[in-house]
Design goal:
two-stranded antiparallel ribbon, 208 residues, five-stranded mixed β-sheet
């Protein structure tokens, strides 16, 4: 996801105001959260946090004071925005949460059913897909059930939102670090950020 493109959608009012205020999903790839009612004086800055499957980034994007709202054509508004700073990690992403959630489910199945599925490559692959689906379900719900078939038997594990938050904690801490690096590069305090834009499929299920 290009941070300038995400910021442009926000400033050009492609993302409805009520979604900005509520922090809801704007489209398949973007969501807006933690917005403020008014921007700081002078230049306006937004923080774009992009969480992909295997990589993540935090970027600070600036809009010049002369840039107005959605009445201007998108092409004109593009000239008024610029990337101020960006920090990225090519080995940090939502896949990490899927793997940790799978470890939690494996431990639960081993404890309750006395079965170790780690040597069953097919079951492990199926379980990883099931964990990814559960992660997406828990983005809006409080409970999900992970099921997997192995050697003719079905195994299941009930997963709560609290469990997802726990296995996501490491990723969230790393994302906070990326945000800190981007703000340091931009020489800005958090109070100068008027909105935080969450992009990428991995951002939907995180306690950000």
């Amino acid at each position: 996801v290009q941070p300038l493109a995400v910021a442009l959608l926000y400033w050009h009012a492609t993302i409805p105001t009520h979604l900005v205020a509520a922090g809801g999903e704007a489209d398949a790839d973007s969501a807006v959260a933690n917005s403020k009612s008014s921007a700081p004086a002078g230049c306006e800055f937004v923080l774009v946090v992009d969480v992909g499957g295997s990589s993540s980034s935090a970027s600070v994007v600036q809009k010049a004071p002369s840039a107005s709202s959605a009445e201007r054509p998108t092409a004109d508004l593009t000239a008024d925005i610029s990337l101020v700073a960006s920090a990225s990690d090519l080995h940090l992403g939502g896949n990490e949460v899927d793997l940790k959630l799978r470890q939690h489910v494996l431990k639960d199945i081993r404890r309750r059913s006395r079965v170790d599925l780690t040597d069953n490559s097919r079951a492990m692959a199926r379980l990883l897909i099931a964990c990814e689906e559960a992660k997406r379900s828990l983005a809006t719900g409080s409970q999900a059930t992970v099921t997997v078939e192995a050697d003719g038997a079905d195994y299941f594990c009930n997963v709560s939102r609290a469990v997802l938050d726990d296995v996501s904690a490491g990723l969230c801490r790393a994302l906070v670090g990326l945000v800190g690096k981007a703000l340091a590069q931009a020489q800005l305090g958090g109070d100068r950020i008027s909105a935080t834009l969450l992009a990428g499929g991995g951002a939907r299920s995180l306690c950000v």
